[in-house]
Design a protein that fits this description.
By secondary structure, the protein is an all-alpha fold. It contains 23 helices and no strands. About 50% of the residues are buried.
Length: about 475
């Protein structure tokens, strides 16, 4: 029996790379990809600290704090709802015209939408801005494809260990920016107190930081990022502006070698959507979707819970404090992923690492009612803050599952040429779940409080049940990682 045949869940990485020397990561291009990836978590996390207060300022709840969750959930879901309709298109397009043009479009969408969000003064203006951001942004799936193309089986886990640097940085800086720079005329009257613009648009300053960063990322991508697609169709040819150049005739001397290259190119063409719906792609996509549902439900409820008055079951924190609390996750997650993910994955394998992250969500949701109980009886006690930061620390565990499922998705792709479409299909299912998750979780949060269902804790029982369902779905992942034919 060969070494390859003996690979199972106890064996590191995708194949028998334990016997191979790891290929060094291409740090220049890899660093650029991490840099431009920062744009998405920065733009998505910056609004979390002030979103509940923004909804109150707009007056759509008519002073009913218990109803804030409905509208916050809708705002969080609308981005993923529109993304679900377009992300597969962008991913498949990247398999044709290359990764770089699609990433440039996505960064443009993030930039414009965040400036518009900061200038919006109506609820429907916010909805339009978030919809624009979701519709134009397919970068998350395309970047994963680019990561896979920059690496091989010997260093893929190492690359995915570094990927959370961008997300953790965004999860750290985003809430800090959103909490500290929202309503600047009130927070910093000596600096912005005379600014009628910042009084009229109190959230523009916070939104302009990630918007400007997206503009800088666009310039860096355009100037320095190299295309990783092996044979992209030029954009002008794809749009019909230019005609394709005629292929040179083969000479007798080159015919044999060129015919082999031609055959390989033909075999590596992107497949149709139907060809992607293999059992392993479906299993990987379903697990990614359920993981995202659990994660987004937790992230969606967290700022609403922290801002809800104590008497209603929350902690009653202001946006600045919420931003500080949420930013701790980014610091812990970045440190943990960079220094421990690859070692944990290599020791326990993809499936066990994935399941460990899912299991950590059970105590994560259990912390919510416990914190509410302590706050109502002891106020802002030492025990309460221990629980708050303990929950943040436990939430790092979910990130283990992301690195593992990305490796499963890469292995599930029918071939390298269909990697973008495979990531896009998986991302589409995730976007659907992330569209459902915030609206459903925050609506259930509000209903639980308004109706006093199970003491206002019904939402937490439902989310724990969802976690157990995700564990069941995870059981279908193979112990032995798929290998591409």
């Amino acid at each position: 029996m060969t070494a390859t045949q003996n690979i199972d869940e106890e064996t590191p990485l995708l194949t028998s790379c334990q016997s191979k020397k790891a290929t060094p990561l291409p740090w220049t291009q890899f660093s650029i990809v991490l840099f431009l990836q920062l744009a998405e978590p920065l733009t998505s996390n910056v609004i979390y600290p002030f979103m509940p207060q923004l909804i109150r300022d707009l007056g759509v709840t008519n002073g009913n704090d218990a109803a804030v969750g409905y509208y916050v959930g809708m705002m969080q879901s609308i981005f993923f709802l529109t993304q679900a309709f377009t992300v597969l298109h962008w991913a498949r397009l990247s398999d044709t015209i290359g990764r770089k043009p699609v990433i440039l479009v996505g960064l443009s969408g993030l930039m414009v939408s965040m400036y518009c969000f900061g200038l919006s003064r109506t609820f429907w203006g916010l909805v339009l801005s978030r919809s624009l951001s979701g519709a134009l942004n397919g970068n998350i799936g395309v970047i994963k494809s680019m990561m896979a193309e920059l690496t091989d089986e010997t260093n893929l886990a190492q690359a995915y260990a570094y990927m959370p640097i961008a997300w953790s940085t965004g999860c750290t800086l985003g809430p800090m920016i959103g909490g500290s720079l929202s309503r600047p005329a009130e927070q910093y009257p000596w600096l912005f107190g005379d600014s009628e613009f910042h009084k009229k648009y109190p959230y523009f300053l916070a939104c302009s930081i990630p918007a400007t960063f997206s503009a800088v990322a666009w310039l860096v991508t355009y100037r320095y990022l190299k295309e990783t697609h092996s044979n992209p169709t030029p954009v002008k040819q794809y749009l019909g502006i230019e005609s394709p150049e005629p292929k040179p005739l083969l000479t007798d001397d080159a015919s044999d070698s060129d015919s082999v290259d031609s055959q390989n190119t033909k075999e590596e063409k992107p497949g149709s959507i139907r060809s992607l719906l293999t059992p392993r792609v479906v299993i990987a996509a379903t697990n990614y979707a359920f993981l995202s549902l659990v994660d987004i439900a937790f992230r969606a409820i967290q700022p609403v819970f922290l801002s809800t008055p104590i008497e209603l079951g929350g902690l009653g924190l202001d946006p600045a404090r919420i931003g500080s609390v949420l930013s701790v996750f980014g610091i812990l997650n970045g440190f943990f992923q960079v220094f421990f993910f690859a070692a944990i994955h290599n020791r326990f394998g993809s499936k066990r690492t994935f399941m460990t992250g899912i299991v950590s969500a059970v105590p994560l949701f259990a912390c919510y009612p416990l914190m509410s109980w302590v706050a109502q009886r002891q106020g802002y006690s030492v025990l309460l803050w221990v629980l708050v930061y303990a929950q943040i620390a436990i939430s790092v565990g979910i990130s283990l599952s992301y690195g593992s499922i990305f490796i499963f998705i890469t292995a599930a792709s029918p071939n390298r040429a269909s990697l973008g479409a495979t990531n896009g299909l998986c991302q589409m299912t995730v976007s659907v779940m992330r569209a459902i998750g915030p609206a459903a979780a925050n609506s259930l949060f509000s209903i639980s409080i308004e109706k006093g269902l199970l003491g206002g804790w019904l939402v937490y029982y439902v989310l724990m049940a969802t976690t157990f369902a995700t564990m069941f779905v995870g059981s279908f992942l193979p112990n032995k990682l798929w290998s591409q034919n």
